Amino acid sequence: MELFDVYPLYPIEPVKGLGSKLWDTEGTEYLDLYGGHAVISIGHSHPHHVQKISEQLSKLGFYSNAVLNSLQSELADKLGQLSGYQDYKLFLCSTGAEANENALKLASFHTGRKKVVALENGFHGRTSGAVAITDNPKIVSPFNSDHEVELIPLNDMDALELAIDEDTAAFIVEGIQGIAGIYMPDNEFLVKAQELCEKHGVAFILDEVQSGAGRTGKFFAHQHASVRPDIITLAKGIGNGFPVAMVLISPEIEPWHGMLGTTFGGNHLACSAALAVLEVIQKEKLMINSKELGNYLKSELSAFNQVKVVRGDGLMIGAEFDFPIAELRKKLLFEHKCFTGSAANKNTLRLLPPLNVSKEELDQFLSALKEELV
Ligand code: PLP
């Protein structure tokens, strides 16, 4: 059987990883400043992550959500502690798109409405509902959902005011728009969105799938704006490679049996993986590292003449060049052995290294960049 060919592939097969390093089948070492789209948060094969998952696997890998699983409450407690959302409830699932699907369902159940306000250039995943609220002509679904969707430009206060009304079920925004090219919502935009959502009884949803889990120096990117959304979705970095996703739900939204569900969400291995990630973020003070090294990387990148602007926060960085970066990215990968990311904005290099990347590793990348740009 052959694989269904939907991904363009680089001819490199990583077979081993440690921290911010990867090795391919030939034993060639690579620096990973992308972490498979922000998935690698505490570094490849972090010993605590490996140990916690292996220990759990040797005891019990899986049983269903129809029986008690105290790992889920342990995880909810730890997440509440680190994120500051102790009073919220946690729903566990497996992917970012699934978390957003559930967020939309919650908003519709809670408000009895269908209209969703989302952002131009936003991305929320590949399931039909997530595609319906995603603004990217290349990402298609023949079904979409039955949500009525209105897209507005990021940081346009007038459009926001016009769009959010008594018919709106939800307003959804990424903590930082990742795939678009690292565009940040202004604090005032988020504060205004929260006010309008409160005024019209609309669910305010923050998609922190890419920007959460400490990446920006706070647990969630929206916490820089001091807003408190009704629903927050989280995936990628919270599992460090193990598929884990989460929906954090305000106490105002009441659950009932059968409202949401999934087979794999919150299984024993997923909980162990996420717990290990939270423990390492806390113990190794990775949010501080993320902020400090992010500031360092941004200031070094800004010094290049060819860099027009550097966007982002912590270790979620987009450097926009005055030329399309596809060739530069290939050179960084094949000649300098460094993984970086692209974005919908063709001039933007996207950097999402593990949160425990070192200054020396960033300097290695900066020297490679310097060589290419002279
Ligand atoms: N939301 C955002 C902001 C994302 O960046 C992504 C993936 O890139 C998703 C949702 C979808 O997550 P997944 O691919 O795990 O379904």
CATH architecture of the largest domain: 3-Layer(aba) Sandwich
C-alpha Rg, in Å?
20 Å
Helix content: 25-40%
State the CATH class of the largest domain: Alpha Beta
Low-confidence stretches: none
Number of domains: 2
SSE class: alpha/beta
Helix tally equals 11
Order of helices and strands: EEEHHHEHEHEHEHEEEHHEEHEEH
CATH topology of the largest domain: Aspartate Aminotransferase, domain 2
The CATH fourth-level homologous superfamily of the largest domain: Type I PLP-dependent aspartate aminotransferase-like (Major domain)
Mean pLDDT: 97
N- to C-terminal distance: 47 Å
Largest beta sheet, briefly?
A: 7 strands, mixed
Q: Could you give the topology of this structure?
A:
Elements lengths: L13 E5 L2 E4 L4 E4 L2 H4 L8 H13 L10 H14 L5 E5 L2 H16 L3 E5 L8 H5 L16 E4 L4 H7 L4 E7 L12 H14 L2 E5 L23 E4 L10 E5 L18 H16 L2 H17 L4 E7 L2 E6 L4 H9 L3 E2 L8 E4 L7 H15 L1
Parallel strand pairs: 3-13, 5-6, 5-7, 7-8, 8-9
Antiparallel strand pairs: 1-2, 2-3, 4-10, 9-10, 11-12, 12-14
Helix pairs in contact: 2-8, 3-8
Bound molecules: pyridoxal-5'-phosphate.
Task: Outline the structure in words.
The protein has 374 residues and is of the alpha/beta class. The protein has two domains: 48-283, Aspartate Aminotransferase, domain 2 (3-Layer(aba) Sandwich), CATH 3.40.640.10; 285-373, Aspartate Aminotransferase, domain 1 (Alpha-Beta Complex). It is 35% helix and 18% strand. It is built from eleven helices and 14 strands. The chain has helices at 35-38, 47-59, 70-83, 96-111, 128-132, 157-163, 187-200, 268-283, 286-302, 326-334, 359-373, and strands at residues 14-18, 21-24, 29-32, 89-93, 115-119, 149-152, 168-174, 203-207, 231-234, 245-249, 307-313, 316-321, 338-339, 348-351. It has a seven-stranded mixed beta sheet, sandwiched between helices. A hairpin with a 4-residue loop joins strand 2 (21-24) and strand 3 (29-32). Helix 2 (47-59) packs antiparallel against helix 8 (268-283) and helix 3 packs parallel to helix 8. The chain is globular. It binds pyridoxal-5'-phosphate (PLP). Pyridoxal-5'-phosphate is lined by residues 37, 95-97, 100, 123-125, 174, 178-179, 207, 209-210, 235.
